[in-house]
Amino acid sequence: MLSPIGDLGVAVDEAGVCAISFDGAPAGGERGDDELLAAAAEQLRSYFAGELTEFDLPLSVRRGGDFERAVWSELAAIPYGAMRTYGEVAAAVGGPSDRPTDPTGARAVGAACNRNPLPIVVPCHRVVGAGGKLVGFGGGLARKRHLLELEARVTLEHTWR
pLDDT tens for residues 42-99? Predict the structure, then answer.
């Protein structure tokens, strides 16, 4: 699907949406569930239009170790328009280091974010470096900035209503 941040590929399997890619290629799907694909595309369009702040799609995560899955679960809990640092996510999930200032924990979270099979829906773009620094994103920093700015704008607009 075409989006404001470029072509997105969306893949589904028998359990739900299983992959979103930034190159437009729907990698990882096992079947063509037109209804689920249409629902995912519509929710993504609504998200980019600033109309949707929470996805309601069945998800299928078929890979990842315990630590990665814990990180992805923590990412899914970050509210729309909010941000967490890699260190804060590391502290929340434990793992290589549960101290927010330990760079090994932050790096492990960064690696898990990079392997997130469902970017945007599982919002790894909401994770930033220490002090709010814009670092790391599998889709590139321009896409990350666009997503964060979109959410900040929509959050501000909802605040003023």
Answer: 999 999 999 999 999 999 998 999 999 999 999 999 999 999 999 999 999 986 555 5
What distance in Å separates the CA atoms of residue 2 and residue 19, rounded to the nearest whole number? 16
Distance of alpha carbon 19 from alpha carbon 81, whole angstroms: 23
β pairing state of 127-128 and 84-85: parallel
Q: How far apart are CA 155 and CA 157, in angstroms?
A: 5
Which pTM value belongs to this model? 0.88
Half-sphere exposure at residue 46, Cβ-oriented, CA atoms within 13 angstroms: 13
CA 79/CA 131 separation, integer angstroms: 19
What is the mean predicted confidence (pLDDT) over 5-17? 93
CB 111 within 8 A of CB 70: no
Catalytic residue among 18, 37, 93, 124, which?
124
124 in active site = yes
Count of other CB atoms within 10 angstroms of residue 159: 8
Name the residue among 71, 140, 138, 133 with its Cα closest to residue 105.
71
Question: What is the spatial distance between Cα 108 and Cα 67, in angstroms, rounded to a whole number?
Answer: 9
